[in-house]
Amino acid sequence: MSLRIDLSGQHILVTGATRGIGRAISEQLAEAGAKVAIHYFQSRDTAQHLAENIGHGAQSFQADLGKPVEVLQLFHNILDKFKRIDGVVNNAGIAIGASVEGDDIAFTDSWSRTMLVNLHATGLICKKAINHFQEIGGGRIVNIASRAAFRGDTSDYLAYAASKGGVVALTRSIARAYGKQGIKAFTVAPGFTKTDMATDFIEKYGEEYVKNDIALTSLTKPADIAPTVAFLLSGLSDHATGATIDINAGSYVH
Ligand SMILES: NC(=O)c1ccc[n+]([C@@H]2O[C@H](COP(=O)([O-])OP(=O)(O)OC[C@H]3O[C@@H](n4cnc5c(N)ncnc54)[C@H](OP(=O)(O)O)[C@@H]3O)[C@@H](O)[C@H]2O)c1
Question: Which CATH number characterizes residue 222's domain?
Answer without folding.
Answer: 3.40.50.720
